[in-house]
Amino acid sequence: LLSVSFVEASADDGPGKSVSNYYYEALKYPCPPNLSVWWNMGSMLFLILGAQILTGVMLTMNYTADEQLAVVSVDYIMRDANYGWIIRSLHMGGASMFFALIYMHIARGVYFGAYLKNTHVWYSGLTLYLLSMGVGFLGYVLPWGVMSYWGLTVITNMMTVIPGGARALDWFQGGFVISTVTLKRVFVLHFLLPFVILGLSLAHVLLLHVNGSSNPLGLDETNFSVPFHPYYSIKDLAGFALLLAGLVGMTFTFASLTADPLQWQPINKMKTPAVIKPEWYFLYAYAILRSIPHKAGGVFTMFAAIAGIAVFPMISSNENFQSMKACPPARLMFVIWVANFMFLTVIGAQEPTGGWVLAGQFGTILHLSALVMIPMIKAEWEFHLFKTAQLDEEESVVNDVKRFLSLRLLSN
Q1: Which of 70, 76, 141, 154 lies 20 to 30 angstroms, CA to CA, from 269?
Q2: Where is the Cytochrome b/b6 C-terminal region profile domain (predicted)?
Q3: Domain ranges in the chain?
Q4: Under CATH, what is the fold of the domain 24-270?
Q5: Which are the catalytic amino acids?
Q6: Helices 119-141, 146-156: inter-axial angle, 10-degree rounding
Q7: Does the domain formed by 277-411 have CATH 1.10.287.980?
Q8: What is the residue-wise DSSP string for 193-238?
Q9: pLDDT, tens digit, for every residue of 54-74?
């Protein structure tokens, strides 16, 4: 029932094709017939991005980017603006769900070898991830609580490790210290960059359609495909329903589940908190940053850990199997990598003293090692797999020759 043939567009369709034809071609786009629920994350990310842009625009109508008025405007949104608390809670919960989906989307790409299908899609996705991290951090600053101020202080001071970084820091801050000018610039960037992400997301999807989607088996299924509609359009709608139910449920029950209590306290620039930490989706990177005692080394290691997935297409260019289903050792390393990610997330929320520092250094080494070892293990496994198959084939040929010669000798 699933072997539905894909009908190509007729050759005489010129540049004057109607919009309905393009719409029809999008619906009949050929997809592998065995895509699992892990391929729903991309469409869910589009839905959450749209919700974040919509709720963000509504929040800007009542927000004031001023050191003295930012907290007042947030209180007005939460207490006095009509349904303001719902909109802000949706925006906060949507940010957490957005990054949770991103991490699952990346993990799926690593496990099933999506980076081998189309490297342009992989690198455009990495660019989207980096931009999303920037937008998420800028949004964390806008409520102007204790963590907002000190988190901005920590992150902006990382600019000083590069040549000319101190000058660039003064330019970004609008002076020698963080002030209202800095907050206004953070607000403008946080408002504009989501539209850049939206445009790049569309480019990401267009690049995906060049070579098609990967699949759980990691095999070429070009000649055995099904149209996107109705098989996967219905599946995406079911995913949307579950996602919206989870988002609304979190908004009305645990609106501040991921927020730090210090975010509700007024800023005291003369008192540094005992533990400065970002939102949960940045904790793994923050743990890596703190694990290196040297400032420049910590910044470099953190960015290497974030963008390290860029090495997968470089190391794995000669693989025959995309998916880890054909490589049990790589699956084990993948599980260790994911578990270590969660381990670093826990460490990033702790005070950087005693054994937590040592644990963070161990987790950092394991994280960076896994980024290199996963593709190397897959390549080594394939080498031995094909070598063994070749030797078995050669041995079979030799045995056939021996059997043939033995029969000839017996017949003589």
Answers
A1: 76
A2: 218-389
A3: 24-270, 277-411
A4: Cytochrome Bc1 Complex; Chain C (1.20.810)
A5: 209, 213, 235-236, 279
A6: 130
A7: yes
A8: HHHHHHHHHHHHHHHHHHH----TT----TTS-EEHHHHHHHHHHH
A9: 999 999 999 999 999 999 999
